Give the backbone structure.
Amino acid sequence: MKRLVVLGGGESGVGTAILGKKKGYDVFLSDFGKIKNNYKEVLVLNKLAWEEEKHTEELILNADVVMKSPGIPDKSPIVKKLKEKGVPVISEIEFARKFSDVETIGITGSNGKTTTTMLTHHVLKQGGLNMGLAGNIGKSYAWQVAENKVEGFVLELSSFQLDGIVAYAPHIAVITNISPDHLDRYEYNYQLYIAAKFRITMNQGKKDYLVYDADDEAIANWMKEHKTKAQLVPFSLSGKNKKGLYVENNTIVSTLNKGDFTMPINELSLEGKHNVKNAMAAIAVAQLKNIRKKTIRESMSNFSGVEHRLEKVLTIQNVEYINDSKATNTNSTYYALESMTRPTVWIVGGVDKGNDYNELMPLVREKVKAIVCLGVDNKKIVDAFGSVTDVMVETTSMTEAVKIAQKLAEKGDTVLLSPACASFDLFENYEERGKQFKAAVQNL
């Protein structure tokens, strides 16, 4: 009996443990932190061996294969020891793919991947396909492979999940865009991070597809220097590139599947330039999967968006409150600020992952009237924008941040939570940060 050791007792870890047991492995799960109660219950119910708040080496180093949760860095001591012993350390995606014969659509990118994944899943479902939704989102891929009978999966894939693949190959791969993110995990080397994203296409064959943003500099540079076997499907906001999908006269035009598909941008349910690109990526996948044009148009206009991503919370005394807690890097916040049409009070801060705030400077000058810092250490933000806005206030709680923002905002303004940072200094994750923001706004 092969021994599977799972590192990390979160969604992907517990899902992998369940699948491993079902497939006849001797399974042991180990988490260096605390395991949440709901996951503990599942482990107990499934009679799985587990430990928390430690890694017992004699129970781990004897593994035949190890599934490492995406949150655990390669440089953690236990992972180093496993690699020195020559034990394969893979991701959940790589482990689960062996036990599923249905095709996957893999979606990655620095920003927009959640929206694109959910939009893609939405349009395929509306088109009558029974698709699972997994990866970085919802119930884990391994767990669904263990339980579900679906025709295929739409997977949101982070660079960490792609780091741990060996043979995984999506039938359709999507790269929404690439900008510096998580550089703390890639030795502060942007090229290593770009290479991690492009692992999504490394095992693709001639019958597979790579859908990508042709306007993206990092993507374009990689494509010049590297080859993929997959068929290329570019999308672009400029009308110059007549291959794949492009924009002309405020209309998305697609040349896929014999005969053009068109959709006016003003009919998309999601606003902002970045969402035009997310929609184009989803349209490309839908066409490759032969979804009817009418269904695609309807799906693009009735999709309701993603929680914590430019989510309109409330308008109080003509001040609009927007929750963009999912913006954990500057590039994501760039899109948020770019889509602001009213003077903005910007709530920003948290754990900085190596941000360069200069790219936000023109937008902050143009749109932001006041900054509320929400973090334990705000020095970098204060240094970057202290001289740009008239008002800057530092806070360490969401309630305080929202109350101050309310005082600073006048009729016709927007209060935008778009932190550009990770949340771990004050919150459990970006979802908790967003929920606290919504609660604080509702209590005003």
The radius of gyration is 22 Å.
